[in-house]
Amino acid sequence: MTITTSVSICLPTCNRPDLLIHCIESCLAQTHTNIEIVIGDDSPDTSTARLIAQHYGHDPRVLYRRNVPALGQARNVASLFARASGDKILLIHDDDFLLEHAIARLLEQWTRHPDIDVAFGNQYEADAQGRIDVPASRRMNEAYHRTPAAAGVQRLAGRTGIVQMFPNNGWLADAALVKRIGYDVPANTQLEVCCDFVFGVRLCLAARAVCYVDDYVSCYRKTGHSVSQATRHTPSAASMAAWHFLKSLALPPELEPARRLALRRLVPIVVSLHARNRQGRAGLSLALTHLYAYRFGLSLRLYYHLLMIWKNAWLAKAPTPAQLFESDDQVVDVTRTRIP
Question: What DSSP assignment string belongs to 195-224?
Answer without folding.
Answer: HHHHHHHHHHHH-S-EEEEEEEEEEEEP-S
